Amino acid sequence: MAKYRMTCDWHTHTTFSHGKGRVEDNVRAAATKGLETLGIADHGPGHVLYGVKRNELTAMREEIRRLDGACSGVRVLMGVEANIVNRSGKLDIEGEDFARFDFVLAGYHYGALGEEPARALGAMAANYLSGRLGRAGAKRRRENTEMVIKALYENDVFMLTHPGDKAPVDIRAVAEACERTGTLFEINAWHALDEDGLRAAAATGTRFAISSDAHTPDRVGDFEAALAAALRAGIDVARIVNIEEI
Ligand SMILES: [Zn+2]
Ligand SMILES: [Zn+2]
After folding, report:
1. For residue 148, what is the domain's CATH number?
2. What are phi and psi of 21, to 5 degrees?
3. Domain count, the chain
4. What range defines the domain where residue 127 resides?
């Protein structure tokens, strides 16, 4: 049985949004796990409950600069997990904001309202209910799929986080959009995609990355269960850019 290691974990949270650890705690955890690169990707500023505050971005950058390379040589990058806010394809960061980050992740979450709050709230309620009922209407799924694909085409997104989580989508269509736009399709170790979803993504040409989505330092670098699920679904490990055979 082959053994694998994770080289980079681009998706971890800290106290700058609603993670439990400080940047430094995540860096130490990354060093312990033998990671080469750690991404701090707190929630985008448009999230009403736990978005990163714009006036803290400078302090965050300072902190990351201080810790970059300081702990077993782990490279530390400042990212953000931007919110896909609505049908326009807009994120809650735009224009010059992009230059403040080393990379931008994007995902759909409840709680980011954008410029059409009533519509966003309606969609959230419908997505939440369809999740509870275990089924989504075709129209809801189509609208979510269009929203996510539009966000990928309209923005320079490094990785799409937890596709299909919180908003049911046509996974194959979304994975094809990842392929065409050069966006990594995330295999999230916390919000796992089911095997059918992974198989649908595998049928496209997209590249993947595994993320811990750690909200506590002890989960930084978690990848084993997500990798096992990916391999079971027939995803060739060579397509997962941050996993290496050892
Ligand atoms: Zn997320
Ligand atoms: Zn996250």
Report:
1. 3.20.20.140
2. -105, 160
3. 1
4. 4-245
pTM for this entry: 0.94
Model confidence pLDDT, tens digit, residues 135-174: 767 888 999 999 999 999 999 999 999 999 988 999 999 9
Q: How far is the CA of 50 from the centre of ligand 2 (A)?
A: 11
pLDDT by residue (tens digit) across 8-64? 999 999 999 999 999 999 999 999 999 999 999 999 998 888 899 999 999 999 999
Spell out which residues have Cβ within 5 A of ligand 1, the ion: 107, 161
What integer best gives the mean pLDDT of the chain? 93
Strands of 86-189, DSSP E: 103-107, 159-160, 184-188
CA of 82 to the centre of ligand 2 (A): 9
Q: How much distance in Å is there from the Cα of 213 to the middle of ligand 2? A: 5
How many other C-beta atoms are found inside a 10 Å radius of the C-beta of residue 65? 12
For ligand 2, the distance from its centroid to the CA atom of residue 1, given in whole angstroms, is: 31
Q: Output the CA 57–ligand 2 centroid distance in Å.
A: 17
Tens digit of each residue's pLDDT (9 = 90 or more) over 50-103:
899 999 999 999 999 999 999 999 999 999 999 998 788 889 998 889 999 999
Measured between alpha carbons, how far is residue 94 from residues 58, 80, 88, 90, 123 in Å? Answer: 17, 12, 13, 8, 22
Please tell me the number of the ligand nearest to residue 109's CA. 1
Q: Are 210 and 226 in contact (CB under 8 A)?
A: yes
Q: Quote the ligand 1 centre to 44 CA distance (angstroms).
A: 10
CA distance 89 to 155: 8
